[in-house]
Specification:
The protein has three helices and no strands. The chain is mainly α. The protein has a domain at about 20-69. Helix 2 runs antiparallel to helix 3 (about 45-69). It is elongated and about 50 Å long. The N and C termini lie far apart (about 50 Å). This is Glycine zipper 2TM domain-containing protein.
Length: about 70
Amino acid sequence: MRFVALAVLPLTMLATSPASAKGCIRGAAAGAVAGHMVGKGHAMLGAMAGCAAIHHHYAKQARAQTVRK
C-alpha cells in the first residue's frame, strides 16, 4: 500500500496546479479531523477529500453568482 502511495504522490503533484482554492485549508482541516476519527491513517485521505469538497462548493457558488449578474 505504501508503494502505491509513494508512486502516485509525485504524479499527482505534477498533474495539479498550485492550490489557490478558496476554503481549501478549512476543508482540509475538517476532513483531516473526520478522517482521524474514522480510523488510523485516514487523516490524509480525509484532508484531500475535504479540500476537494469545499473547493467544489465555492466553485459552484461562484458560477451561480456569475450567472445571476
